[in-house]
């Protein structure tokens, strides 16, 4: 019998890598790693590590500038490249991109296109290049975080940090949730073996800087949290969403604090 | 990524006017030593930072960043693969024998050489450059250029010590007659190539290969391979010298490919993009340490199409239609086609034509290989990196 979180968790209340349900992996990040770009970052969540560089806002290619979004504001262009050595087995890709990286780049593009204050830079392109150096689950969430850090480093205005985190269930969760004997727990920040085995979703949240009337509210210390990205590729019964979403949002809050620390720490230098 | 893709194997030509090119050429070809735009001496390399073993998921990895911000990451992954039967690769055997008349491993004389001496196709290299597809000319050409020197470097010191490296890298990949390692070297250039990226990629690959470890083999002889679980006892692909013998023998290291250009009579190393655009000749020279640990060995030379061939020529005043009226020199037939003018006018840029003189190649290789020369300096610098 293979060792899996779904079999070991009910017995030990510990996941395969020894974490509890609400523990994140080690989070490490740096910004301004590459002086040749406008902004860059390195981010590692557990064994997932990503380098991200931002170029621009700069004048886009002629073909794009005349496009539909050209006059309205900056166009966000995302390029995701999963290195051949990123996974366990070396992957051979024909022609340059596979389904996974295209998928991630589409989500990132739509997320940051609407998140950034692109109207400040008409007729320009912000190009984001994401290189996945090692992939061990939560790839989309880590890519969102790395992009945010690189965009902050590039000084591109945005309403708040966009942070991503994953959450999953400790079982297939394909039948309606039974409120009396519920043995399934939600999990925060999934690793690759867990992702392949369990249903999970990725959430990206952002905080709105309090303006106007809300400016006076002092009860909420970090403004209002909004979900900006929600992506789910696997199947789960809808009754479990109640427990999945709050866990992912909690993870995003933790990551936001860590990322704020990274940004503040780098300014001191 | 706004740079237009070039079909040429040389990197993108910067947009310099003929006057700028001529100025650059003149200052680089000064007989008393070139004046480079960034103030370096002709043999000086750009400062770089290097680190190894950065990716936990690979057998070996390295990152090098130049001060101008170009960075490369190399990850090496190894897989066990079944060696194809001898009859299927008879054809390759012949080629293999031709290109590598290497020492066979002990007792392997009677077997086909692919099973004993290894095969070049076991090393695969792919280069990822932003803005280029991986089947574009530049990545393919670069990876083949680096791979051939890696595979071709065979030490002749199989007798006595270092029997593990007897067949070079190819020989090291042999597990037994039926199994071998397949090595995937993936190179990731993290930024737009600001200059021809060959030296950066070659140095990074060198360090990554040095840090590469293969699991320790537990099975013996012709058994199906079976490895030790303990990564702590894994063996380096390029074996470290034993502490007892370190006084006499230095470690065998992968080869390094250097980029050298000649401008006029000067030889310039590690050119940046502007310098390479006025070069008369661009050579990629692969070197490695001699088996005795002293002196250098030349592995390969490749000429690279210099981008100066694609530049626009300057028009001398004597042939310029717009100034001709002023000079009154109107009966010049060459004026219609400035590139047809044959004579060199000082201070007017003229794209380089024709091949490389033999004496130039001699001079280039001599500068690399001579004792205390650039090659030695680079290898010493790399040996200083803690792997």
Automatic annotation (TrEMBL), chain A:
InterPro entries for the chain: ExoRNase_PH_dom1, ExoRNase_PH_dom2_sf, PNPase/RNase_PH_dom_sf, Ribosomal_Su5_D2-typ_SF, RNase_PH
Pfam families: RNase_PH
Membrane spanning residue stretches: none
GO cellular component, one term: cytoplasmic exosome (RNase complex)
GO terms, molecular function: RNA binding
One GO term of the biological process aspect: rRNA catabolic process
Exoribonuclease phosphorolytic domain sequence ranges: 23-157
Record-stated family: Belongs to the RNase PH family.
PANTHER family registered for this protein in UniProt: EXOSOME COMPLEX COMPONENT (PTHR11953), EXOSOME COMPLEX COMPONENT RRP41 (PTHR11953:SF0)
Name this polypeptide is given: Exoribonuclease phosphorolytic domain-containing protein
Organism, scientific name: Penicillium chermesinum
Automatic annotation (TrEMBL), chain B:
Gene Ontology CC annotation, any one: nucleolus
Predominant cellular place of this UniProt entry's protein: cytoplasm
Name under which the protein is recorded: Ribosomal RNA-processing protein 42
UniProt keyword terms in alphabetical order: Cytoplasm, Exosome
Organism: Penicillium chermesinum
Key word Cytoplasm present: yes
Entry's family note: Belongs to the RNase PH family.
Molecular function GO terms recorded: mRNA 3'-UTR AU-rich region binding
């Amino acid at each position: 019998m293979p060792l899996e979180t779904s079999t070991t968790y009910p017995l030990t209340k510990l996941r395969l890598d020894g974490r509890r349900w609400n523990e994140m992996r080690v989070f490490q990040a740096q910004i301004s790693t590459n002086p040749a770009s406008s902004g860059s970052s390195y981010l590692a969540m557990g064994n997932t590590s990503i380098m991200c560089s931002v170029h621009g806002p700069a004048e886009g290619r002629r073909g794009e500038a005349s496009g539909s979004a050209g006059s309205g504001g900056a166009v966000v262009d995302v390029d995701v490249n999963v290195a051949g050595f990123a996974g366990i087995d070396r992957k051979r890709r024909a022609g340059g991109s596979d389904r996974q990286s295209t998928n991630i780049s589409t989500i990132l593009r739509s997320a940051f296109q609407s998140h950034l204050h692109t109207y400040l830079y008409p007729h320009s392109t912000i190009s984001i290049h994401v290189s996945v150096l090692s992939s061990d689950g939560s790839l989309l969430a880590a890519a969102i975080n790395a992009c945010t850090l690189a965009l902050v480093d590039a000084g591109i205005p945005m309403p708040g940090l966009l942070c991503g985190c994953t959450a999953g269930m400790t079982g297939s969760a394909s039948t309606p949730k039974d409120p009396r004997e519920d043995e399934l727990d939600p999990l925060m920040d999934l690793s690759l073996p867990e992702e392949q085995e369990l249903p999970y979703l990725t959430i990206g949240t952002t905080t709105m800087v309090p303006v106007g009337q809300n400016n006076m509210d002092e009860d909420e210390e970090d403004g209002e949290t909004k979900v900006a990205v929600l992506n789910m590729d696997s199947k789960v019964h809808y009754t479990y969403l109640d427990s999945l979403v709050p866990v992912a949002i909690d993870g995003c809050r933790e990551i936001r604090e860590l990322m704020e620390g990274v940004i503040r720490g780098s300014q001191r230098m | 990524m706004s740079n237009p893709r070039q079909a040429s194997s040389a990197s993108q030509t910067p947009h310099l006017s003929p006057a700028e090119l001529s100025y650059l050429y003149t200052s680089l070809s000064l007989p008393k030593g070139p004046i480079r735009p960034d103030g370096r001496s002709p043999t000086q390399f750009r400062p770089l930072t290097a680190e190894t073993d950065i990716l936990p998921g690979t057998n070996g990895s390295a990152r090098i960043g130049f001060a101008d911000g170009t960075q490369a990451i190399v990850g090496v992954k190894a897989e066990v693969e079944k060696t194809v039967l001898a009859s299927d690769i008879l054809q390759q055997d012949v080629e293999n024998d031709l290109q590598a008349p290497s020492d066979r491993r002990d007792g392997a004389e009677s077997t086909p050489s692919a099973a004993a001496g290894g095969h070049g196709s076991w090393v695969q290299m792919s280069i990822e450059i932003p803005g280029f597809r991986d089947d574009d000319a530049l990545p393919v050409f670069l990876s083949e250029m680096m791979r051939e020197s890696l595979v071709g470097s065979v030490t002749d010191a199989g007798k006595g010590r270092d029997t593990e490296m007897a067949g070079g890298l190819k020989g090291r990949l042999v597990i037994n007659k039926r199994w071998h390692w397949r090595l995937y070297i993936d190179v990731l250039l993290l930024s737009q190539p600001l200059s021809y990226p060959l030296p950066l990629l070659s140095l990074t690959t060198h360090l990554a290969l040095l840090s590469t470890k293969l699991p320790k083999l537990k099975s013996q002889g012709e058994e199906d391979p079976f490895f030790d679980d303990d990564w702590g006892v894994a063996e380096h692909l390029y074996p470290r010298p034993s502490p007892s013998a370190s006084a006499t023998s230095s470690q065998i290291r992968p080869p390094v490919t250097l980029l050298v250009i000649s401008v006029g009579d000067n030889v310039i190393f590690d050119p940046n993009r502007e310098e390479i655009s006025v070069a008369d000749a661009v050579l990629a020279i692969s070197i490695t340490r001699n088996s005795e640990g002293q002196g250098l060995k030349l592995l390969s030379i490749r000429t690279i199409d210099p981008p100066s061939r694609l530049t626009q020529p300057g028009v001398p005043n004597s042939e310029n239609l717009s100034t001709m009226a002023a000079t009154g020199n109107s009966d010049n037939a060459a004026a219609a086609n400035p590139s047809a003018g044959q004579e060199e006018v000082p201070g007017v840029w003229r794209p380089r034509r024709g091949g490389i003189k033999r004496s130039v190649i001699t001079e280039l290789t001599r500068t690399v290989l001579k004792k205390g020369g650039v090659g030695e300096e680079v290898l010493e610098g790399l040996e200083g990196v803690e792997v």
